[in-house]
Amino acid sequence: MSLYRRLIGAVIILLLLFSTGVFVIEVQQKRDVLEQQQRNQVANLTQALSLSLVPFVEVGDWVGAETLMRATFDGGSVKRMYLDAVSRDKPLRIEQQVREDAPSLFRSMIDLPEQEGERDISGGWSPLGTIYIEADNNTAYNQLWYLALKMFGFLSIAVVIAVLVCTVLLRWLLSPLHDLSSHISAMELQGFSKPLKPTSIKELQGITAAVNRLGQRLKEQYDAQAQQVRRLQSMAERDAVSDLGNRAYLARVMEEWLASADGGALMILQVDALDDLYRRDGFEARDNAVRAIGQQLRAARLNNEPLNAARLSANEFAALLPDADDDERYRFLEQLMGLLNRIVDANPLSDEQLDACRAGIVVKEPGARRMTMLAAADKALQAARERQVDWEMAPKASAASERNRSEWRQLVEQAIDNDTFAFVAQPVLLSNGEEFHREVYLRLPEGDRVHSAGSFVPVVYHFRMGNRLDEYVCDWIDRRRTGLTNRLAVNLTVDTLGNAVALGRFMRWLEKHPHTAAGLDIELSEADVLKHPTSTQKLCDQVRALGGRTGIDRFARNLQIMPYLVSLRPDYVKIDQSFFVREEVDTELLRSLCMAAHQVNARVIVTRVETEEQRQRVIDIGADGFQGYLAPVEALVVDEH
């Protein structure tokens, strides 16, 4: 229970105790007054009647005596009255009953005895009789009851008003404490960038200053950790001259690329003119040209997507090209090769431009391996050199690749419309053996063949069908929610994240299916997060509010993601195991990545862990779990019961 509610509860209890005390005291005082009034009234009536009845009793005028008694009876709260005269055979009795308005429970709680009075009627030396009066306490109880009702109503209204006033005052008085609590919560969710405003409350000034110092210290610590990660990655995967990746970088990104469903192509670029520049003008001229080539490769965009480029040797470069049509790729290569040739052209004013750059390109196919693609690209490069052309495309290896995109699109649309996709899932295991979730994958059956995601997902991206596929997958899971016992992870495509309409529709779907949303882990690619940080923040906030979890896949490819971790607060990040299988420096790099992720309370999952040795190293370095061959892909089983 919050401090505010506790204080309000304490105020209410105190007000109730005070009101109860006032109520009891007031009723008790009124009861004592009524009892004394009744006692005096009975005594006065008894004395008055004993004197007034003498003339009537002496002459035996019982009618007059009864009249006098009734007159007195009507004027007071008398329950019973009788005259016992010596000259009368039986007493003269008069009785009446006042209506009872007070409930029996109230009467039982308050003791108000009935008053009695008795007095002799004097007739000289001998008494003429006795007058007896018994008071009726119903009238007193009725007065007490009406007083109690008025007091209860008044005190209830007073308590309600007092509670409302105290609520407003306490909320105002506790607002600095509320601001402090909100700021600390915001520090956890949004980072450490905004300091807390100073407060005028003396008791909170020290706490406010301490929180600001703590936030600043955490920010500096996280920034230092992120800077160390960038420094270590630069040491391990960066070429100092071109500012591109090196061979280690290319090996890592190729392994991740081949393991994903993304399409694209590998290009190996050879610039022989760099050797001529070195021999003619020295290493400085060559390095300037290398820097210009690196800048050009970093700035190049194919379908608004950057290249993953690396420098392999003194005059050899490589780049992973995003997925594109053959015509788009042809235009891009023609423009890129022209720009690169002009960079290293020794005589740019000459009418004839020399072809100083050659390239070999191989398109990614399902099941392709890194060494196979590198060999094919190198073979295409040699063919380009022999034919004296700017670039050469390696021939496609499989007949399946000959199927055009329109045919693949038709297959995908039919599978969505007819619900014929096959669903499989791969477990993610934590270091203690507990299952974290199962990542969902799609398979596309076609006759006797089953196509993996790598065959059709590039087509989905090309035709911007990702949002439709996302909706299909989520609807499929929602319809079978009761039969799915494991927590599932779904990879959201950029077509949903980057389209405001599609993202709004998906967020509304989450709101309409809160139970399903609470059992989902929404995974976003690091590249997509960097492209659409605002949309990512909105989605993460909503998923978190609904009880779901978010994760970043292919984490640490681009360390520009590090500042966003503080505000996004993902529940986990996934790092490819190729980060730590090459050199000793990678161990420190991965350990720093784990520490940076843990600072924002994110679990670190290492993917594509194939051996027990790799799994043990993952745990030793500080990762929280793994995904890979040790926990293979399985069919997604739906419990029909």
TrEMBL record:
InterPro entries associated with the record: Cyclic-di-GMP_PDE-like, EAL_dom, EAL_sf, GGDEF_dom, HAMP_dom, LapD_MoxY_N, LapD_MoxY_peri_C, Nucleotide_cyclase
Protein's UniProt keywords contain RNA-binding: no
Domain HAMP: 171-223
A Pfam family annotated for this UniProt entry: GGDEF
PROSITE patterns: EAL (PS50883), GGDEF (PS50887), HAMP (PS50885)
Gene3D superfamilies: 3.30.110.200, 3.30.70.270, EAL domain (3.20.20.450), LapD/MoxY periplasmic domain (6.20.270.20)
Record field: transmembrane: 144-174
GO biological process, one term: signal transduction
Domain EAL: 405-641
GO molecular function: cyclic-guanylate-specific phosphodiesterase activity
SMART domains recorded: EAL (SM00052), GGDEF (SM00267), HAMP (SM00304)
CDD domains: EAL
GO cellular component, one term: membrane
Keyword line: Membrane, Transmembrane, Transmembrane helix
The GGDEF domain, residue ranges: 262-397
Name assigned to this protein: EAL domain-containing protein
Protein source organism: Larsenimonas rhizosphaerae
Lineage, top ranks: Bacteria, Pseudomonadati, Pseudomonadota, Gammaproteobacteria, Oceanospirillales
